[in-house]
Amino acid sequence: MSDTTRRNPMLMMGKSAAITFYLTFALFPLYWLLKIALTPDRLIFTEGTNLAPSEITFSNFTSVLFKTDFLSYFGNSLIVSLGTAAVTTVIAAGAGYAFSRFHFSGKKIIIAVMLITQMFPLLMIIAPIYKIIASFGLLNSLSSLIIVYTAFNIPFATFLMQSFFDGIPRDLEEAAMMEGCTRFQALRKVVIPLTLPGLGATLGFVFTAAWSELLFALMLISKNDTMTFPVGLLTFVSKFSVDWGQMMAAGVLALIPSCLFFIFIQRYLVQGLTSGAVKG
Amino acid sequence: MARMEIKNLMKRYGQTEVMRDINLDIKDGEFIVLVGPSGCGKSTLLRMIAGLEPISGGEFLIDGLRMNDMRPRDRDIAMVFQSYALYPHMDVERNMGFSMEIRGDDKIKRKQRVLEAAKVLGLENLLSRYPKELSGGQRQRVAMGRAIIRDPRAFLFDEPLSNLDASLRVEMRLEIARLHKRLGATMVYVTHDQVEALTLADRIVVLEGGNIQQVGSPLELYERPANRFVAQFIGSPTMNIIPVSPAKNGVTLANGTKISLSDMLDLNAAAELGIRPEHIDVLPYGTGDFDAESEVVEHLGSDTNLFVRVDGIGPLMVRVHGNVPNQPGDKIGLRFQLHNTHIFSADGQSLGQRITLAA
């Protein structure tokens, strides 16, 4: 049946058209971001809907980099995102492993509670979180963001890691333990190397989530020197005007670490690492 | 090397008791096969021996030492898994030498041992390959090599051949038999394949529903099954079971044929008669104990399987050695070899193994 589908030219064209449409739809905003970043200020409104600017400038980028606090926002975001990704992944890996491999009393309740935490709209809990952070004296600190982001990402990251651990046959660990490993050695020498794709995926997911988070950053951070990048973007919006060119240039720059991060981890995301472990 | 004693062993999952009162003595160097249908507890028992499954009650000893609370790594037992459980991120050499690596053995010594074992198993050209680049048979060999290299007190096999195709299975079966002969180590082997059980075992343990049904040598189980379950489980094709009623000095089949039996225990309890297909003689029509009509004839070359129908009894299977000219629809006479007839009570217990014809 797949043969006839493949040979039908109409279906082939339809498939290509659908993919093209989807890609255009998904990538067009990114193109627009880049386009406006490269458009000189004076042309932004006159050439508003043209697909390409008649003139290109890099002045938006230079002024963002050298005349604003962008680099400091950027650094703060990097610290927060990397910190959150690292802490979350370590905790989620531990919890996911426990859920995947051990039976303990209260396991179902813990899983249920973790699911419930995902059901609340974030807006509902902003005020209590603010109070808690304030009473610890952590307002306007990057560590407050790391703590909050970690707390909110752990449930999903845990379930993600659990599914990766579930995908590794128990036999492998048991074989390692029969061969003289302690459970921890089996984990370190056999399970972790095989879970690298999972760890990579979790790191990437949490990093991106923390990188683009605005709501909590806006609430918990009000000082310029601890602002993260999404909050910093808002500084381009003043009372009477929006500096579109610089805002977009900052946006383009902010995409770079996300892209780099995914290029770096994508080799761990390649699946099929466990093929050949079991069965003939 | 290793003598194992299993005393009143019990396994519970929560409140559910899955095995009870398992008692078994495994002699040093003995090849024991645990066999039974799926869910009978054979793998659970093996995993309790390995230390991968906690023991809920009773005792397990190796060479007189209590093992109940010992970790798998401290029991010094090697195990070959059904899935082979090769580490996919390590090449064959590291897979085989992993136990020595963990033990912290010298690298040169490790390399040497791996090479020795690889030669025995014909793997010396594959040492730098990864598991995914190996065929099923080669993976199986690596898994065995990994076990041999440690020189353990005992070997456990958990259905090691069930993922291989038929011809490879025969080959690996021989290899395991050779391995046992060469190493003389205690081996415990789980399978659901009775051919593996009969060919490999010094003694077979038949399990069903978490209970040991019978322990004995392959021939003992074949010739003197303790109950109907063992009788039907061991031997291929399966034993015919025919309902009977007790009669004076014998039993009566449902079609009225009287089978005269003497030196039986207590025939009053007789409920079923068991006879293996190869223990029924085919005679010309009208000259046997009773007559039958053949329905299907299978020519296997060395043997011929006849599926026959007997009025008042139902279908029976008969195996005749060699090639016979019988065709479907032929009328034939049948006679039971009385010394190979088994009688079971209503609850399936054997009432005596060998029966001789009364005058």
Automatic annotation (TrEMBL), chain A:
Q: What's the protein's topology in the membrane?
A: Multi-pass membrane protein
- Keyword check for Chaperone: no
Pfam families documented for this protein: BPD_transp_1
What is the top-level taxon of the source organism?
A: Bacteria
Localization recorded for this chain is:
Cell membrane
Q: Which of UniProt's keywords are assigned here?
A: Cell membrane, Membrane, Transmembrane, Transmembrane helix, Transport
Task: Please state which protein family the record places this protein in.
Answer: Belongs to the binding-protein-dependent transport system permease family.
Q: Which residues form the ABC transmembrane type-1 domain?
A: 74-265
The region annotated as signal peptide is none
Membrane-spanning parts:
12-34, 73-97, 109-130, 142-165, 186-211, 244-265
The record, for PROSITE patterns, names: ABC_TM1
Organism from which the protein derives: Parasedimentitalea maritima
Question: What name does this protein carry?
Answer: Carbohydrate ABC transporter permease
TrEMBL record, chain B:
Q: Which organism is it from?
A: Parasedimentitalea maritima
Q: Which InterPro entries match?
A: AAA+_ATPase, ABC_transporter-like_ATP-bd, ABC_transporter-like_CS, ABC_transpr_MalK-like, ABC_transpr_MalK/UgpC-like, Mo/tungstate-bd_C_term_dom, NA-bd_OB-fold, P-loop_NTPase
Output the Pfam families linked to this UniProt entry: ABC_tran, TOBE_2
Instruction: Tell me what this protein is called.
Output: Sn-glycerol-3-phosphate ABC transporter ATP-binding protein UgpC
The family annotation for this protein states:
Belongs to the ABC transporter superfamily.
Which keywords describe this protein according to UniProt?
ATP-binding, Nucleotide-binding, Transport
Under Gene Ontology molecular function, one entry of this record is: ATP binding
**Residues annotated as domain ABC transporter:** 4-234
What the entry lists under PROSITE patterns is as follows:
ABC_TRANSPORTER_1, ABC_TRANSPORTER_2
Q: Taxonomically, what lineage is the organism?
A: Bacteria, Pseudomonadati, Pseudomonadota, Alphaproteobacteria, Rhodobacterales
